[in-house]
Amino acid sequence: MARITKNAKSALEKVEKGKKYSLTEAAALVKEISYTKFDSSVDINVKLGVDPRKADQMVRGTVSLPHGTGKDVKVLVLCTPDKEEEAKSGGADFVGLDEYVDKIKGGWTNIDVIVATPSVMGKVGPLGRILGPRGLMPNPKIGTVTMDIEKTVKELKQGKIDFKVDKYGIIHSSIGKVSFDASQIADNAKEFLKTILKLRPASAKGGYMETVYMSGTMSPSIRVDEKSFAVDK
To answer: In the predicted model, is pLDDT for residue 28 greater than 50?
Structure first.
């Protein structure tokens, strides 16, 4: 059995067992108990009362975090030459088509998001077996297959993220860094959670948002009162 470190023990002692914290309390506490030497991500895990095996209960969407993610998002745009300047104006890190299709076939996936125009999806489609498992496949449902390249890239660079419930009914996402102010962490978390609430499937019965936990990298999870973000100011 692994020994618990002094820092981890100290962090655990600061999280009151069985307590549900308001969003503002959780945001302040996640900063206080972070003990990594690097700027940890702040993550949220939301357990939903849905059955993801049923198509009408699949919860998926996008949200623009008010304060971004704190991460430099690397964006690849796959497009025809006439859209390349627009992609570069939006701030895309990589722009092109055939050379990047070949690079991806060779195993290159050193990007965070891929945006594509509808006209090139015939070439992008066969990359699904590589991109799909990594969550990189462009998808019109989340706005990454689009003709509005410049706007889409700008939003992604500024903190627009997509999320999807997994097979266990859980949505997991990073919503900032512990270096953010507590108010910025709370704002991002609130926007994220409110977006999930709006996506409640009509066919979902009973409780929808069952549990919400916030944590930093390697730090203990903090239970968030799922009612608090609707009333927190």
So the answer is: yes
